[in-house]
Amino acid sequence: MTSKSFHFGLFTLIAPFLVWGLLGTICLSCHSTHSAVARSDRNNLRFEEGERWFNDWIDHPEHIPVSFTYAGKTYRGLQGVTAWEKSLQETTEGTVVTLRCRLDEVVAIRLEALLNAKFGEVEYTLWFENQGAEPSAVLEDVQSVCLDFVGEKPRLTGCLGDHINYYAPYDKDLETGEVSFVSDSGRPTHESFPYFNLMYGDGGALLALGWAGTWHSRFAYDGTQTSWTAGICNGFRAALLPGEKVRTALVVILPYSGRNEDAATNLWRDWFIQYNTPKADAAGTPIQPFSTTCFASDTGLPNSDGSVSERFYTWKRTLERLVYERLQIDFRWFDAGWYFDPAGLTIPKKWWHIGSWEVDTLKWPGKSLLESNEACHRAGMKVLTWFEPERVTQVEELVRNYGYQKEWAIYNGRKVYTNNLGNPDCLEWTLGRITKMMGENGVDLFREDNNSDPAVAWPMHDEQEEEDYGLPRRGMTENKAVQGHYSLWDRIIDFCGKNGKCTYIDNCAAGGGRNDIESLRRSIPFLRSDADRTTTAMRLSVTSTFNKWIPFCGASTKESVDEQQAGQAGGSSFYVTRASWLPVYNMSEVWTHDVDLDFDRVRATYAEWQRFRHLLLKDFYVLTPWRSIRDDSGWTVFAWYDRDKDETLIQAFRQETCPDAECIVHLPFLQKDRNYLLEDFGCGEAAGSNEASACRANADCEVSAKALAEEGLSIHLSGPKQSRIYHLLPL
To answer: What is the pLDDT of residue 695?
Structure first.
């Protein structure tokens, strides 16, 4: 199988892990972890495997699973590279090692690696830096990982990316042939997805690449072992100029025992939530599930998208109604269209004309935007605001009016300009525009979008540099741009931390285009896909796959034919809102201009999510077969299970054209020989004339774990497009 699109962002190891020679040169021969962190109690933990890899790599750099060609010589691992300087640090997260050496008099190498003390997860990134006064020799054929896994019957499972594939799952028997993926758009998780579950022998490994640009990955079995090779900056071949540095992808490997996919999924989710999810604030507070809403659909004005229709006189009515109706929503979502275009003109509907990041004072005269945000703060709401820093328009006007430099814009030949964040001056200008707007207008959280494929533009800049320098430069623009993009996010987060704002980012790239694992150390996809604003079948399908890999995410709470349309008049049903139960709950109602909006139902559906949201980051089980976004003919049932409290939430959906009134699911994850109180919350409401009887909850009852595992839970719904909620607590 060959499929397009997988992106990953290389990880410069989070601040607590950085070891810039802190302990000097240390000889490492025995590397047992001295951290006080207790190992996970999950029974499929394979800590020793991760520890073995980690110790082998740092004691024997020739075994580090990378490859590249430099000055015509091919390196598999770092064999022949000597005079290593090794630095070690023990942290509460685990063991961090930095290895440094030189390839020649010009190029230095730095490896950053981590062994997680709780899960046995290992990760690394390799850097090349020209520390000389002359251009380096040619670096090419760089593979971020070349690792072999020994074991029979290898099988590769995972899901594809957003857009045309909408996170559809795959399951490949590697004994029948190799599997390859290529992502070449510059938005790493459109169409393909750089997260993989490789099963082999009596266990497996959960794998991910971190890089927010182009990437490729290949799995091949030779009868004894499965080789995994992957790289970034597709086609990279370049000489490094003095002071330049490039990097490989962040490579993440979490080994596990057994071949139970549910157990592997929840090991990954547990690790991901604890160690790969950003924090809420500068104090390091964990992010808890939260809600958002956008005022833009509630202005009564024409609205093409985003917040184009919002004005200084439209917000107050919405906010006052939310306060009056006792709806305490966590974030005001302020989307595209709030800025002047680069010519300094107002944007009546074409939000596409971006780049100034200057508040449109015709829509928001004086300090009216700040005043509206401060009013939200007083009402208990924070404010997130949309930007798109990787794309610019009307470049000559940006130069004339806003101090932009023409050489920062890379034309892609398709009427789109990419903002070159790999240029330090461009990065500073862009950062300054964003933080100035956020600081002056009381914005709490940065939302980023990207509605272009930058990989179309990057090679054009490479070609120009090849003409200028007379040297190969293929892939340099991309590598430096992705580094610059991560730096932009880090510095925005630093600004937010110093100013009492949210220290994480709302991550969007035309929907789910930038969900690589390194980007998600700084951000959360508030909206997993733009299409997640349409049908419930879409939402249930995506949850079945995406949430296995990325626990903290969100979708809309409406149904509509078009992504930009409002939901049905009167508000969303229990069926639709329950399908939207994710850690980010995006409420999509038209608050005052929908005269039929049923606020009692809105309060009831929101209260349900609030009651059970604490379970949405716990273990996750899909108890029915996966259904595509176009298949609404069956049942979809999820379970969310808190291992510590032995508490379970079950969501059951009889979809729109499902003919079966009953579905039986089994719950083998419950603690054996234990009885539970099964609370039935019914379907809230139902479509059709039998609403009263159809929605009535059955009486709560006592059930045993043995019966639920062996006989199953029988779920009944009288008609299609209904849902049922169960809650299990131990007795």
So the answer is: 57
pTM beyond cutoff 0.90: yes
Last-in-domain residue among 275, 303, 331: 275
CATH number for the domain including 82? 2.70.98.60
Residue written as token pair 């461009």: 426
**Cα dihedral across residues 215, 485, 446, 640: positive or negative:** positive
Distance CA 139, CA 669 (A): 50
Are 183 and 490 contacting, i.e. CB atoms less than 8 angstroms apart? no
Nearest-CA neighbor of 670 among 700, 703, 630, 629? 703
In angstroms, the CA 575 to CA 444 distance is 32
Q: How confident is the model at residue 360 (pLDDT cuts 50, 70, 90)?
A: very high
Task: Give the number of domains in the chain.
Answer: 2
**Domain end point (choices 275, 292, 323):** 275
Q: What would the pLDDT profile of 654-689 be if each residue is shown by its tens digit?
A: 999 999 999 999 999 999 999 999 999 998 874 443
Judged by phi (left if over 0) then psi (alpha if -120 to 50, else beta), residue 688 lies in: left
What's phi and psi for 592, nearest 5 deg?
-120, -30
- The DSSP letter of residue 646 is T
Crossing angle, helix 261-275 and helix 536-549, to 10 degrees? 80
- 552 class by beta-carbon count within 10 Å (0-12 exposed, 13-18 middle, 19+ buried): buried
Instruction: For residue 339, list its beta bridge partners.
Output: 359
